[in-house]
Every structure is written in C-alpha cells, then in structure tokens.
Amino acid sequence: MIKHNKIKFVGTNSITKTKVFIMFLLITSFMLVMSLVLTLGKNGFQDANKIFDINKNLIIVIPISSASLSIASLLLQQLSKNRLADNSVLGLGNINLIVLMSLIFIVDLNSDYSVNNYLNIYPFLFIIFSMLACFLIFLFSYKKNKNISKKFILVGIIFNFTFLSISSSLNVFLPSGKSSALKQFINGFIDTSHDLPIFVSLTGFIVGTIWLAFIFQKFKICNTSYSVAKSLGINSNSINLQILLICGLLSGVAFTLVGNLTFLGLIAGNISSFIFKKNYSYSFPASCLIGSIIVGFAFLINKNIFESNINTPAIIPLIGIPYFVYLIVKEK
Length: 332
Prior knowledge:
Blueprint: H1 2-39, H2 48-55, H3 58-80, H4 92-106, H5 112-141, H6 152-172, H7 179-187, H8 195-224, H9 226-231, H10 236-258, H11 264-276, H12 280-306, H13 312-331
Helix pairs in contact: 1-12, 3-8, 3-10, 3-11, 3-12, 4-5, 4-6, 4-7, 5-6, 5-8, 5-10, 8-10, 11-12, 12-13
C-alpha cells in the first residue's frame, strides 16, 4: 500500500512538472514573439529604435485582444460543453457591425469634431452592445431550475443570423465614401494610432478578468453539476448570466482593438484544453499565451512579407488548420 501511494505521487508530480515546462515554453515563446513585434520592421532591425516607438502600443493591443477572445471562447466551450463554441457563433461581431454602420451613417468624415466624437464613443458602444446581446441570449435560453448549456448556443446562432441579415441590409445603403472604416472592422485589423480605444479596452479587460476571478469557483461547481450547485445554495442561472456578460465584455474589448477577428479564440481555447484538459489554473493562462503568440506571429508574417496590417487576421485560420485537421483525423 505504501509503495502504491508513492508511485502515484511520483506520477502526479511528473505530470505537474510537464505542465510547468509547457507553460515555461509558452511564456518564452510569447516573450520572443512580442520582442520581435516591438523591434522588427519590414527592413529588419536596422531601424529598431524608430520601429519600437511606432510599435510600442502593440504590446497592449495584441495580448489584450488575444487574451479577451481566448478567455471568452474557452468560457463558452466550458459552458456549452461544445469544443466548437466561439463568440463569433453568438453573433457578437455582427451586432457590433450594426452599431458601427449606424455610427458611420451619422458621422461627417469631413468634420474633425464629428470624427473625434466617433473615435471617443465607439469603444463604449461595442462593449455595451456585446454585453446586451449576451443578456438577450441568456433571456431567450433561460429556463427556471434548468441549465442553459444545451440551449444558449442555438439561441446564439439564431441571433447571429438575425444580426448578419440586418448588417447586410444596412451595408447596401452605406455611402461608398464611408465603406473603408466598415471594411477595416469586417476584415479585422491591428491599429494602434488612437489611445482612447486602447485605454478603454485595457480597462474593460481588467474589469472582466477580476469579475471572472470572483465567480470562477462557483462557475466550476455549476458547470460540473447543477444539482450539487443547487444543494450548496449557488444560483446557477445567475452565475451563467454573469459568465455570458463577461464573454460579451471581453468580446467587445477584442472587437474594439482588432475588429472581427474570427477563429482565434476557437483555436487557442481548443489547443489549451487539449494540453491541460480541465486544469483551469493552466488552461486559461495558456489559452491567452497561445492566442497572443498566434496573432503576434501572424502580424510578423503579414507586416514583413505582405507589408500590411489589415490582412493579419486572414492568416490566423491558416495557422489553425493543421490542428483542426488533426482533430478530424483523431475523431475518425
């Protein structure tokens, strides 16, 4: 009996060391990629100091947007018990496109005052409407004394198609001279030229992560067993609503910084879950690091090979394809 316990302890310790080593590799890779993002321009290192001044806001934009999408997607995957769940499935990007088009209709691009008002207000609106969409999804999937996990994805898909239809209809009436701003958000972008959206997004991310930290233990219990949570006096519906609102908050943060960046959370969340399973102490930080590495790597490729910021998100699905091919082969 003593030997058996000793062998079990050694095995557990070995697994822990492996996880710590993987985290060390991820942190090292993250620091390396961010260092290259900060100092590497299209002409290499020759103008490193100048490039650093231009790229310094990227050290906030890339990690915060990536972490926001990764955390939101991983939460949705855990809540729905579906590995393919993602914030884009719920239509959070499309509702913000509707908000953006409504703003563009109003804004006079020839007036500095009007443009400044647009830049000052859109970060708040993206966050508010993302959270509103998540609240509506909860409202339509809510059932007393029942978990929402099996229904809210279906409701989200319906909302997604509804928002997509509305945004497509509004796009028809959009003046051609105002389409460039919309195209930027639709395709995704990495822009660090305005400080207020970055500050608002950073604040939103901090609020969201602190909020999540306060309720996460209760969420784990609710997600494991509805009946156990009820016996412990935990209101599962309240926790689920808060988790969806946090997902909306983080999705709004990411949309503000990089536009409609698809698949990133799905890829990062799945890779992290595959490596660390349900060990949340590792899987959530790892998903943030993986997402940041992917976006930073895509940015470096796009900036130095294609010399563009706008098409950086288009490279991200290509990076994730090998992993999803592996998943399909594994399932077969």
